[in-house]
Write a structure and sequence with these properties.
The protein is α+β, with helices and mostly antiparallel strands. The strands form five sheets. Strands 1, 3, 5, 7, 9, 10 and 11 form a seven-stranded mixed sheet that branches. Strand 9 and strand 10 form a beta hairpin. Helix 1 runs antiparallel to helix 2. The protein starts with 5 loop residues before the first strand and ends with a helix.
Length: 345
């Protein structure tokens, strides 16, 4: 899309002044015409020519990395044009994305950026952008469409869980021993703070990285199934499943995932983590096959009564796990052990 050059409000004022000057020159002599009208008309002509011959700019976007709902990323734009004119760039944001995507820069290869907030889970498009070129005096504008579309995957939000990780993974094979250094990766929500590599993170001002070790964690294996029944809220189910997934993966357990459209075998790698989060990002209103429920140790069930977590036939509303204390009181007010921990201890 390319729009022909148009006068700005300032340009219209200058044109109006020039017309009045021409009229005054006709009435009162050429001196008024020469003093005002000629400079104004020359300015309009030169700047109009400059904008009209401006070629469509090239826009490059440094797309944000995927993340969880509620997180913010920085989007960097670079605009290049033959004449290096001033431009205003407005990036198109898909549903589920929020921010102030309008930046002013110069089409000479310099960078400009804006903050993008992940508002809702799902796959959302970013771009193309609308680039409006303006002459140095702000008299004319011309609009172009530039830049490709990018797809951004927004994972469900992660809420803190009050129950300890062993409640969900069990104590099977749990160890605090660490093997040899394996590498570093980008920090993910839920990673232990002790694993942050502060020295490496100092070289990346916009993100943290964590250290990974061979043989770190546990040899526990489990599968999480997500079942959205009639009247259930898939968004609430996705948040619950994501929160459980992040906690279990954080212990080092190999975690599988069953959704109505995806089945992932238990694993614990960065690639597996992304695949599982992507599956939960697009979770819909479909019910899970019975066989998938039976093979899972943890079942997240959403229906008209809310979201329930079932572990080894013991069940509890997810809100209790997310917001409770991890213990309950009997009729006499005495604290009792969490039934989940009785099952899994």
């Amino acid at each position: 899309m390319t729009v022909r050059a148009t006068l700005t409000r300032r340009g219209a004022v200058v044109l109006g002044v020039a017309i009045l000057a021409v009229a005054s020159g006709w009435l009162f002599g050429a001196r008024s015409l020469n003093a005002v009208a000629v400079p104004a008309l020359v300015a309009l002509a030169v700047t109009g020519f400059l904008v009209r011959r401006t070629e469509g700019p090239t826009l490059t976007r440094d797309p944000p990395s995927d993340g969880h709902a509620g997180e913010t990323r920085t989007v960097t734009l670079t605009v290049e044009g033959a004449l290096g004119v001033a431009v205003t760039v407005h990036d198109a944001l898909g549903a589920g994305l929020a921010g102030e995507p309008t930046v002013r820069t110069v089409a000479d290869g310099r960078e400009a950026s804006y903050d993008l907030t992940f508002r809702e889970r799902g796959r959302h498009t970013l771009g193309p952008a609308t680039v409006t070129a303006t002459d140095p005096f702000g008299l004319w504008t011309r609009t172009f469409e530039a830049g490709a579309e990018h797809t951004v995957t927004v994972y469900p939000a992660v809420v803190p869980l009050t129950a300890p990780p062993r409640t969900f993974t069990g104590a099977i094979g749990r160890t605090d021993e660490r093997g040899e250094f394996s590498g570093v990766r980008e920090y993910q929500h839920g990673d232990p703070l002790r694993d942050i590599n502060w020295k490496a993170s100092a070289k990346r001002p916009d993100e943290y990285v964590v250290t990974t070790y061979a043989g770190d964690g546990t040899d526990a294996t489990l599968t999480i199934a997500v079942d959205v029944r009639a009247g259930g809220d898939p968004d609430a189910a996705a948040v619950a499943a994501t929160s459980l997934l992040v906690v279990c993966l954080g212990t080092g357990a190999a975690v599988g995932l069953h959704t109505p459209t995806e089945s992932l075998a238990p694993a614990n790698s960065d690639v597996h983590r992304r695949q599982a989060l992507e599956a939960l990002a697009v979770l819909g209103h479909r019910q899970l096959p019975a066989g998938a429920r039976e093979s899972a140790r943890i079942v997240v069930r959403a229906d008209e009564d809310g979201v329930t977590v079932v572990i080894d036939d013991e069940q509890r509303p997810f809100d209790d796990i997310a917001d409770g204390t991890g213990a309950s009181a009997d009729a006499n007010g005495d604290t009792t052990t969490d039934p989940f921990e009785e099952v899994l201890a």
